[in-house]
Automatic annotation (TrEMBL):
<dbReference type="InterPro" id="IPR032774">
    <property type="entry name" value="WG_beta_rep"/>
</dbReference>
<dbReference type="Pfam" id="PF14903">
    <property type="entry name" value="WG_beta_rep"/>
</dbReference>
<protein>
    <submittedName>
        <fullName>WG repeat-containing protein</fullName>
    </submittedName>
</protein>
Amino acid sequence: MAGAGPNAPSRLVPFRRGSLWGYSDQQRRLVLPLRYDDAGPFVEDIAWVRRGANFGYITPDGTALTPLHFTRADNFRRGRATVELQGQTFQLDRAGNRLTAPPDSTEYAAETDFLEQGDLVRRNGKVGFRFSVGHAVVPAEYDEIRDSYHGLLFVRRGAKWGVINQKGKLVLPLEYDAIRATPANGYAFPIIEQAGRFGYLAADGKLLVKPQYREAQPFVGSAARVFTVGGQTGYIDTRGREFFEE
């Protein structure tokens, strides 16, 4: 089975109708039938699924990679996935075999440099930014500036956050309570929070999905898991389309 990067797009997206889960293509056409109680995204061509209290893994053609017998099953990352079985926690390889060697710790080292695009400029207790490429300068009028690694800056004034692009232009107004990006998915599609609701940003720093969900998880590959205000669970794709229906 050919490998795929952890954030490579999958042609299949977890799809929920009512209480049952299957997988659809990018046009929301059902490909794998609705027969699971929960389902995860395909990562490295493997997805976790749940029936009752038991988890297992499947491949894109619906073939079982493992039995449905785990009490926990995480997404694959760098050829490994953490599972729990009979009170024991361990990792599997992409063939479904139990691993005994620990992962290379350098592969999971946290990235701590949040200002790789230039330098902070401080003046009178405020911060601005000078980009290392080009001539754009962000004036020192913010209380905090963070680098998102995609040509965007997250800026805070008081309690509210917004986004500035590489040209120094404010592309998302300072109206949001939080903006979060994670190195686990390459800082793609940051999550925004406003008045207790969550949404996502697009690559240009503008809104992909307005804050409307009770909870929003980071994108994994081409899908992100969300929880509606009504308590339902489903996935959206990188265009913000919902892959669930009641």
